[in-house]
Amino acid sequence: xxKLLIVEDERWEREGLIDFLDWGAMGIEIxxxxxxxxxxxxxxxxxxxxxxxxxxxxxxxxxxxxxRKIKELKPNVRIIILTGYGDxxxxxxxxxxxxxxxxxxxxxxxxxxxxxxxxxxxxEQDTSFKQEREELLLEVEEHRRLMKEKWIDDLLFGxxxxxxxxxxxxxxxxxxxxxxxxxxxxxxxxxxxxxxKLHKLIVGPHLIKYLNKREGLWLVVIPAPAMRPDxxxxxxxxxxxxxxSLLRRSQVTIAVGTEADTIFEVSDSVxxxxxxxxxxxxxxxxxxxxxxxxxxERSAFLSEAADFLHKGGQQVKAIVFSVHALEEEQAIxxxxxxxxxxxxxxxxxxxxxxxxxxxxxxxxxxVAGINKTExxxxxxxxxxxxxxxxxxxxxxxxxTFVADTIAALREKRDGKDEYVIRQVNKLIEQKYMSQxxxxxxxxxxxxxxxxxxGSLYKKTTGRPFHDQLAQVRMNKxxxxxxxxxxxxxxxxxxxxxxxTSYFCTVFKSAxxxxxxxxxxxxxxx
Length: 525
Known about the structure:
CATH architecture of the largest domain: 2-Layer Sandwich
Mean pLDDT: 88
Number of strands: 10
Helix content: 55-70%
């Protein structure tokens, strides 16, 4: 709806114009009325009128003077001037004021409607132009935002050219690209609006970037502070945890990168800050993490590495022995003691500890005589181990691994034949799509000869191994054929049978109907 203001000093004419046309049907609402030009100017600005209908001859300020002032302040307001025949020449001055139209008195419905139609068309054009301009400005702003984000990414990872580095520095208010910079990596605390809080707390020009990697982290780039970089980090922790914040100091972890001589070396500081933060996350440290402190811990560990391998080896043997003896309580206690010792040896890299623990997993798998390198979902235990970001998470994983291994070993010993068959059936479900699956490959998985496994499988289940493999494949094939996008040849390959004709033969033998006929029957339904 467009807002209309009526300015007329004669009351009866002013009220007559209110009811003169069906304004609502035209998409117009009467925002107000005014008795003279002074009041009309005030009402136009206060009410935000889009259209003004005004008389010329009024006390105080006439219609033309009011129109002139309105156009100076609100150029897009459309004005219709009502004038008597004797004032026609006087009213033509309205053309110079870019008034939309003028209408001769006495005002007829036809003439006013004609003028309003033109005014509304111009208002629509103004609105359309304004919307297009706003959309263009939004597009430009979005482009600038995306461009800036890319520049920041490139800067942090060392691929931003000098020209764009200077432009980015200017955009962020950095005095010079040749001054020193420091990067801080802050562990993500999963707090709403944390980035906004950082922006408010950091005084002066800075860059802030969130990275969705590991457990999430915030990178902060600032010109090198007057104080030591680690002292600045301590101050930042105080600000984050102060002022009524729900955060405690012990929850905040900030890793301090080395000082970069110019903005072009910032990426080196980023890499170090990320590495230090990963180190802190692994060992469960909080507070300020500096290179000096970590290097000190690393040096101390290197001097004790041989002792670590010796004592750790004894604990590993205790764990393996307890698992072999099915003594779960002793095994868990030995794991706890091993990790207690590891925690006392801070300074080792996280991957060094993971590699060491992967050796324990391998020994447990060998002792159990079963395939424990993969879990039920097919995920590799080594991959799982290396995906864990903290020592505490690794400890929880090893507790579960040990308990599962003892349970599997106990099950194997209590019912070896049944256990082997369950393992084989599980492997068939996992690998039926492979063309390499065979009795021989399954025998290798469960540490038996192919002849013995074949005989055992038929004796236990009452059917040959290959019949079970075919049944699993055919059941999977039925599921795939339900999708009309899957052709028969593709389904055959998906279930591990490269020959389409052989697949059709096996399918018809199993279900009494060809795969093509089965798929057609499904689609008819």
